[in-house]
Amino acid sequence: MLAHYLQLGLRSLRRNPMLTALMVMAIGFGVAASMITWSVFRVVSGNPIPDKSEALYTALIDNRGPQYNNAGNEPPEALDYDEAVALIRARKAAHQTLFYNIGLSVMPEGSHDLPLNASGYATNTDFFNMFEVPFQYGGAWTAADDDARAAVAIISSDLNNKLFGGANSVGREVTFDQHTYRIIGVTGHWDPKPRYFDVFAGMTYAEPPDVYIPFTRAIDLKIDTSGRNNCGGAPVHIESAEAWLHRQCAWIPVWVELSTKADAQRYLDFLTAYAAEQQRAGHFNWPPNVRLRSVMNWLDFEHVVPPESRISLFVSVGFFVICMVNTIGLLLAKFMRRSAEIGVRRALGATRREVYEQFLMEAATVGLAGGMLGLILTAIGMQGVSLLFEPEIARLAHLDFSLLVMAIGVAVLAALIAAFYPSWRAAQVQPAWQLKSN
After folding, report:
1. Where would I find the ABC3 transporter permease C-terminal domain in this sequence (predicted)?
2. Per-residue pLDDT tens digits for 168-185
């Protein structure tokens, strides 16, 4: 019977092409507007590491004083070198990492080739396990490499393609800023969005990193940070790189992995005790002011989701609702114009349920056609996302299989919902009245 109702529905759509076109367009435009904004919102508001987001925390300590803090006496969003290294050396978490942004010049093997620019991180070995970095070849360096300040490096698959044509480059050497490193790993595609661990440096939606070297090695070579460096107050003259290294500037994020809430509370107690010890030693002259935020709490605190993405999503959903109201009116007009047909069917023995099924199937056909139109409009609209969002966010919007299925499903479901009242009205037609009047 469903196949029969589908056939009847298709015949009915061809009977009133103008009315059908209006309904298909209403659904198509509503679906397209919603899917375009949703494609952006789902990326910027999603959980970038769902299986560990409740176990990863960023540790913050007020190392500059309340006069430089943000509203609510919030401490800086990163640590200075001394505090960051001290927390790592304390080993109060099973896994812990620190890092800072670096920009390096890469010298290809061919002497005729020009140097390449590569961005990445100076970090430690725990970084890769904590943040679930996949490897195409090789793996992470060891803790012994960190302690030995080893000249080792991990590169991305993209950089590996540029330098070595995508071959297994583990064991080969590469030159960064005139220093030679031995490649011990090549990462697979890894581009969490938003990049939760590096919000401080403004890399939330940046391109994937190209290179990783040991933090200790980068400090030995005095490699400057290419990210944010927040020293508070007016700029001052720094006599040497060593003096700058120990200045109370926020530039090194520290993240720890804590499996349970009890572990998190113990680590927070440790942070408070550490800050109190620094106050007694005269390093700080203000009460302990520390924070320990999990991934999603950190993203909420940093307002990572752009406000324009929420506003545009609400506006598009409102537009979709208006389209559905119009579709209800069009379906009601279409169904009630067929009162005579309905009366004859009821007189011949059709039940109200069968009338419901016929008209709901017809509405589903309209929804399917509207969904197909919506997909075409969505693909076209993706080209204009940059008009609403920053380029680094706009490039994240794309039409994938999940969005395709969602668009079709939403269109069909919306059409069915819109058809409930018109179908109910159509099913209430009295056969006797229609037979007498027609």
Report:
1. 314-431
2. 999 999 999 989 999 999
